[in-house]
Structure of Ribosome-recycling factor:
Amino acid sequence: MSEEFEIDLDDLKRRMDGGIASLRVEFASLRTGRASASMLEPIMVDAYGQKTPINQVGTVNVPESRMVTINVWDKALVGPTEKAIRESGLGINPQLNGTIIMLPIPELNEERRRELTRVAAQYAEHARVAVRNVRRDGMDQLKKAKNDGMGEDDFKIWTDEVQDLTNTYIATVDKTLETKQAEIMQV
C-alpha cells in the first residue's frame, strides 16, 4: 500500500463509534417498564432562559424498581421541570411533593411494548444511516486518492477495508437493536 494515499481509518472508526454511542443513549431513554435515571437524559428543562439537562436542575434518584424521583434544587424550576417531563413523550404522569417530582413507571402493556420496539428499530436505522454516511465519506476520500494517482490494487485494498469496517459497525447496530428489543418485550 502506498503510504501517501492512506486514508485515516481511525477517524472513520471514531466517527462510527459516535453513531453507536448515540444509539446507546437513545436506547437508554426508551422505557422498558423498569425505572432508570438514564430515561430522563434527553429531557431538557427551560431553566433561566435556556434549555438545561434535567440532571442539572435537580438530583435524579431511583428509590425502587418502578419509581424515579427528581429533587429539584430551585423551587421556581419545579413547574418547568414537570412540564418538560409531560411534554417529553415518555408517557409518564409526574406527581409533585414539594420540590420532589415523583415519576411512577407503569407496567407496559403488549401494544406499548410493540410500539417501543418499532421506535427502537427507527433509532437503529438512524445509526445505520450515520455509519453508511461515514462509509460514503471514506469512499469519497478513496475516489479522490485514485484520481490523484492511487494504484488500482491499493484502491481495492482500501475499499475492502472501509467496507469491512462498515459491516462490523452495522452488525453492532443490529446486535444492539436485537438486545434492546428483547429487553422491551420481556415481561
